[in-house]
From TrEMBL:
Residues 87-224 form the O-methyltransferase C-terminal domain. Transmembrane segments: none annotated. Keywords: Methyltransferase, S-adenosyl-L-methionine, Transferase. This is O-methyltransferase C-terminal domain-containing protein. PANTHER family: O-METHYLTRANSFERASE. InterPro entries: COMT-like, COMT_C, SAM-dependent_MTases_sf, WH-like_DNA-bd_sf, WH_DNA-bd_sf.
Length: 226
């Protein structure tokens, strides 16, 4: 709940930006009072309330906390970005205005991306029966894959987004063919963006482990050779 509130209030974004401006996040910190001044709050105790939230996040290594003794003897805490903050702040998308999502189903991912970054024109690239009921979005095109086109090079685009297609794409050769087609369709400064899970070395009883191991068993059940 505290982390959710910190993200919704842009507190993580404020800390990440402030402690990175100097080019050396390891020594740059920001106090709760300065954070409170940057959020739309009229509560006179906002800095105290923020400090209580931030010290909890620091105890989980989401933030880093440093302390100093003020002239009156009080301890003052200041905060900087932790190792996981980069996953909690807004991503800056640059370098392309068109994005093709290969195998996105009804287009959930590409619609989310284009809604967050309106300058991007999205294309959902999938089989006809998969996208038959896909919702219409003025920012996204729908492109059908026929059985003959599936093995042909893709249209010339600047960026391709591939999310977990390897899990349901069949053999390794078929997956490599898909990625190669994406690569061959790119201009010199284009990008193939692959979003994929990484299996942990040792299993843990946490949600992220459950998800990736279930995906691994899905591959074992559906794909030749697992």
């Amino acid at each position: 709940m505290v982390l959710k509130s910190a993200i919704e209030l842009d507190i993580i974004e404020i800390i990440f930006t402030a402690t990175s401006e100097g080019g050396c996040a390891c020594i740059s910190v920001i106090s709760p009072a300065k954070i409170a001044a940057r959020i739309p709050s009229k509560n006179p105790d906002a800095s105290v309330l923020l400090d209580r939230m931030l010290r909890l996040l620091a105890s989980y290594d989401i933030l880093k906390c440093s302390t100093c003794i003020k002239e009156n003897g009080e301890v003052e805490r200041a905060y900087s970005e932790g190792p996981t903050c980069k996953f909690l702040v807004k991503l800056k998308v640059h370098g392309f205005k068109e994005l093709v999502d290969v195998g996105d189903g009804i287009g959930v991912a590409i619609n989310i991306i284009s809604s967050k970054h309106p300058h991007i024109q999205g294309t959902n690239y999938d089989l006809p029966h998969v996208i038959a009921d896909a919702p219409n979005d003025e920012r996204c095109f729908i492109t059908l894959i026929t059985h003959t086109r599936a093995s042909e090079p893709l249209t010339y685009y600047k960026a391709f987004y591939v999310l977990g297609v390897e899990h349901v794409g069949g053999s390794d050769e078929r997956c490599l063919k898909l990625l190669k087609n994406c690569w061959e369709a790119l201009p010199r400064d284009g990008k193939v963006i692959i979003v994929e899970s990484i299996l942990p070395v040792a299993p843990e009883n946490i949600a992220s482990s459950h998800i990736v191991f279930e995906q691994d068993l899905l591959m074992l059940a559906r794909n030749p050779g697992g």
